[in-house]
Amino acid sequence: MKHVSIGSATSVYETVSKCEITRHWVDHAVLADVSRSLRSLAQSLDSEAEEEFWQRVLGPLRRLAFALCSTPLPFDRAAAAACIDWDKLHRQVRLCQQLYPDSHAALASLVQKLQSLSAETGTPFTAPLESLHAESGGLSVVLRNPRMNQAVAAYFAASAALRNATVVSARQLREAHLCDVLVAIGPCGWFPDYMFSAPRAAQIHVVSFRWIRDPWKPGPVFLNGAGSAADKSRKHYVGALPQLRGQTVPPNQTLPDLQPLDLLPPLPPFGKAGSRIPGWQPIAGDETLPARLCHLSGGRAVFVSAD
Amino acid sequence: MSELAPVNLHFEDSGEWYSLPEWAEYFIGVGKQLASADHSTSRIVTAIVVPTRAYCAAFVSLGMVISDAAARDHSSAAAHFEKLFDLPAGTPVILRQTPRKVLKGVLQGQEEYNGKLYVRVQVQSRDSQTGGGLTHLIDESRALQVQPAKHSGKLPKKQGAENKRFANSFVDGLLGEADPVHLGLRSKLVCAIVGKKNALEHEIRQTPLALHANGDRRAEGQLQDVLRVDRFVSGQQSYRSALVPVGSSPPSGDVTSKVEMGVVFDGAAGFLKWGSMWPDRHQIIILDRTELYFDDAISAINSRFSQNRADAEFPLVVSAAPSGGEVLAFREAIP
User: Fold this and answer.
1) Any CB–CB contact under 8 A between A11 and chain B?
2) In a domain, B269, yes or no
């Protein structure tokens, strides 16, 4: 455990008091359409979405859409990192025509659009990142999907305009890791609240697609409305909190937003190696990791990496 | 309660000494205010959200121990005077006439003089040719100046005004008018700190601090010199606070029953686990926003606030929250 000195703790308090959070919106019409179509398809399936066929199809599609929405990599690189097996997906589309003819057109269109997106050699994140990098001379970038950290770090290192950008983890931002400028890729709702309420950077830029709703704002956590301000049986104070700067909602918003959670890919299935549940099979393309199940007091349990 | 001396602490960073920052003074102030808070029918619950937990609980505890020492009333001196009566003649002691004037001595027993009781303390050796053997008569009002000590009992012919071996200027300076002798003499639990042992040990035992006056560094020490955490004292040293590590073992019955002023929860985990173990003592709960169980702890406090809040007024000296922080303080009915 790394101990925090009084000096480091003081820096944290100073950073909070002067922290400004600025939102930046980026756009991509086709990706917006794909994201909305994906949500619509999942909603239209209702309980059928739990069926194995749809899990095998929607899982990779949601992973890919999420990768494109949350990773500052050119779309072709992000798609490669997401390891999508297009041949298999096309076979699923053909199978869908027989099994679920009602949903075939929507699925075929979605797969076609995603495959087309996956061939693009740019990402809307590049322009704001390069601009912020040029302004500050360097920045720290945090991603929602840590599995992309390595690919993004390699991309930054090879890019002249982003050479001084470093990838940091949300965990690092729990401790006394301080940086001047932090860029979060995606809406605040994708990240732990402390990244913004107990910031480790004086400037935080949240770069997100404009069709993803991002209602986060700093505010109190304790109940305080149960009495008047003159109520002497309680005291409630809120210290200096980070300030939101600039526009807090995207301009010219016309289409309905997606919620941050709408885009998150499904949790990976957990299976007990050696004694799996009868009939359980990993879905093609799923990543399997050895893990230990740890039971905690209070009826909680967590999976931790077996490594 | 005597006036508390302002804390003029400095901390060291990269070889330089700096005044204790405002946030640290804030937490010392939170601890100090509890000394005068009654907990007969309700107790004060103070929940403080912070951007980093570092040192918060340690400084709150420091405030509690300092204020407790300052609040010591005459009955403590009387009780101590009686204890001195029980010690056998020849017991090595130190006599602290002023914070900076400390003499080695030997207790010679009690005496009555003009209808008043005294203990006699010898501070010089006696010589058949040159005399010597200076003694002091100590009445009840000065009883706390005499503290049993571990020296050999062999007295010099003449003692200097300062005996640095027995003086602790750091403690003297922090306690102000409060007599530090008492701190070293009697064990009691002013407070318990529930938290991670490693982090707290680093903060309490391994962080150099110093008292400055007029721009000069006067005395160095650690928080442990005043907090005297039970797990960090050795041998016969007295303790003043208890550390309850957040682990699988619950706090001992001694710790739950003997805490006099309050409990400081350094983090959500300890609070959620053992928050109900001291039902009639003040609670200060430090919640780091980056903690895993932060939201659970906030829910628990909000629930207690809405269900158990007592309609009793209380004076809260602290009237703000640190940067990035939030404070909710209320009186909670004692079941």
Assistant:
1) no
2) yes
A223 → closest Cβ in B52, B54, B306? B306
Q: What is the pTM of this model?
A: 0.81
CA–CA gap between residue B154 and residue B156 (Å, rounded): 7
Q: Which domain holds residue B86?
A: 75-148
Q: Give the H or E element holding residue B70.
A: helix B56-70
CATH fold of A6-27+124-214+239-249: Rossmann fold (3.40.50)
- Answer whether A113's CB lies under 8 Å from A86's CB: no
User: Given A17, A176, A220, which is nearest B52 (Cβ)?
Assistant: A176
Is there a single domain that holds both residue B79 and residue B68? no
ipTM: 0.82
Quickly list DSSP for B255-319: HHHHEEEEEEEESHHHHHHHTTS-TTSEEEEEEETTSTTHHHHHHHHHHHHHHHB-------S--
Residue type at position B165: R
Residue ranges of domains in chain A: 6-27+124-214+239-249, 29-117
The CATH number covering residue B133 comes to 2.30.30
Sheet holding B116-122, edge to edge: B135-138, B116-122, B101-113, B92-98, B146-148
Q: How many domains does chain B have?
A: 2
Range of lowest pLDDT (A56-60, A185-189, A270-274, B261-265): A270-274
Burial of B335 (0-12, 13-18, 19+ CB in 10 A): exposed
